[in-house]
Request: fold
Amino acid sequence: MDERLFLSIIAGLFGMNLGSFLNVCSLRWPVDESVISPRSRCPSCHEPVSWYDNVPVFSWLWLRGRCRHCEERVSVQYPLVELATGLVWAGVVAAYGPTWEALRGGMFLTILFGISISDARFYIIPDEFSIGGTVLGIGLAFLPGGLGWMDAVIGAAVGYGVFWLVGVAGTTLIKRLSPGRLEEAGVDQAMGGGDVKMMMMIGAFLGIWGVALTTFLGSVLALVVFGPISALSKRLVPLGVFLAAGGGVAYAWGEQMIAWYLRFAGMA
Reply:
């Protein structure tokens, strides 16, 4: 077997196990629960899940998506998150090999995935993902290859600062043009602090250009995909979901997209 393929499979298995933990983090952190205790349990009968029923993906398939004790259905989210996280880690190792960049990419995309799950379900981006991810991104920037630590620090500062200013300006504009709109939505500001801190994390991993590209892609996706739904239902846009998608695209193809834009604009 080809060495790169073998390492990708190993990385995929590691990613599936990490995905199992990611499920716990994305469901417990938003409601201020510990991810350590209590151990994994059935969401219906709350019986602890035995280790042999907690093997990523395979246990869910073996039990046909039901709890062993109460036989209630267990959400398909669990195996899907595990499988997707496994594919992320297999993909970065296939692309970069057993390098520090593969570690950076795997961690960044996993954090984005966790943020999207939390924000979609709870409209909350836990600080453990955003602030913890910022610290991790800056720390990984000291390793060989990839973004340098200074670019990571500047990117984090710019990501936070720009989104904080956008939030303040947006809140002021909405209150002037549409009084009561924020109160109807049950919030007191146009942009949540979680989104601001999330962009700080993205800046720590991708730098200034990554912040710019993520902001553009995330905003376009949110407008096209969720804009009509929000207009009709008055529901808030889970912006973190779309910023996560934009950040993933920016990480994978950002350099090519920016190079194309510079050529198109006659700047390169």
Notes: Residues 145 and 179 are 50 Å apart (CA to CA). Residues 1-98 form one domain. The chain is about 70% helix and 0% strand. The chain has a mean pLDDT of 87.
